[in-house]
Amino acid sequence: MESEWDPLRALGAVTAVCLLLWAAWGVGCTVYVYLLPQVRRGAPWLRAHGAWAVVTGATSGIGRAYAHELARRGLNIVLISRNLSKLKLEAEEIERLHGRVTRVIQADFTGGLEIYEAIETGLKDLEIGVLVNNVGMLYTKKPSKLLDCENVAKRLSDLINCNIMSVAQMTAIVLPQMVSRSKGIIINVSSILGKKPNPLFSAYSASKAFVRSFSQAVGAEYFAEGVLVQTVNPCLVESNMTAGTKYQMAVMNSEDYARQALDTLGLTSQTSGCLSHAVQSFLLAVFQPNWFSLSRWGIKLSYLLLKPSN
């Protein structure tokens, strides 16, 4: 009788070993990416990819922080956003604080294909080493069902153009010259919400899932040609989109986030950006599994947790 259970015992032992190896690999990768300063790539390595960095959505939040941190590490900066006066102020600030050359391009990414000709012209003849596709927008300012806002068609069109088309089109503009030089870095800012479907953020999380999938595929296509593509999946970071959240204690300073996220370049193609967000991402995956978050009870709980405070 005892021998009949031997295969099951063997299967259990193999499963346990596999789980332990998986856990050890996860811990090892986390330590390597976030806790070992000696393995990080330095500013000379970053500058070797090209003299210029291009940042979309560069006048606030994560985009602004990336622009300043890249300038601090020695790159000239092209700032792209829709507000020209804010662009000029940020450009002047970068030149004053970091002594780098800047260029500004005004563009409203909720527009269609017509906006990209001017962007391509503005980037012509620049040796672009880093592209940060950061610009993004929420479908609504608060957690909502898909139809719980006015002018649904316009809002969806704006979100798709801003969050999805911008990533694809900016990549298509910058990638050819990176391939021709056999070096370059593309950083696509996704979100923790892009890792699975998220009711009450359905359109936003779907758009960020596109960013994640697109980044992985393009990164695989052009890795052998010297182009590095990294997806950044932040939790709550200081920006216009997190200004109204009631969990301000969990909101990370954007400057600290950009600095730590840039430290992971060359170490991983998928990053939460910093150790605290990696831990948060793991805990959410464990304690909010997909089957629950998509259930009616999960939706009710999400609404209670995310409902804006009065």
UniProtKB/TrEMBL annotation:
<keyword id="KW-0752">Steroid biosynthesis</keyword>
<protein>
    <recommendedName>
        <fullName>17beta-estradiol 17-dehydrogenase</fullName>
        <ecNumber>1.1.1.62</ecNumber>
    </recommendedName>
</protein>
<dbReference type="Pfam" id="PF00106">
    <property type="entry name" value="adh_short"/>
</dbReference>
<dbReference type="GO" id="GO:0004303">
    <property type="term" value="F:estradiol 17-beta-dehydrogenase [NAD(P)+] activity"/>
</dbReference>
<dbReference type="InterPro" id="IPR002347">
    <property type="entry name" value="SDR_fam"/>
</dbReference>
<dbReference type="GO" id="GO:0005783">
    <property type="term" value="C:endoplasmic reticulum"/>
</dbReference>
<comment type="similarity">
    <text>Belongs to the short-chain dehydrogenases/reductases (SDR) family. 17-beta-HSD 3 subfamily.</text>
</comment>
<dbReference type="InterPro" id="IPR020904">
    <property type="entry name" value="Sc_DH/Rdtase_CS"/>
</dbReference>
<keyword id="KW-0560">Oxidoreductase</keyword>
<dbReference type="GO" id="GO:0006694">
    <property type="term" value="P:steroid biosynthetic process"/>
</dbReference>
<keyword id="KW-0443">Lipid metabolism</keyword>
<dbReference type="InterPro" id="IPR051019">
    <property type="entry name" value="VLCFA-Steroid_DH"/>
</dbReference>
<keyword id="KW-0521">NADP</keyword>
<dbReference type="InterPro" id="IPR036291">
    <property type="entry name" value="NAD(P)-bd_dom_sf"/>
</dbReference>
<keyword id="KW-0444">Lipid biosynthesis</keyword>
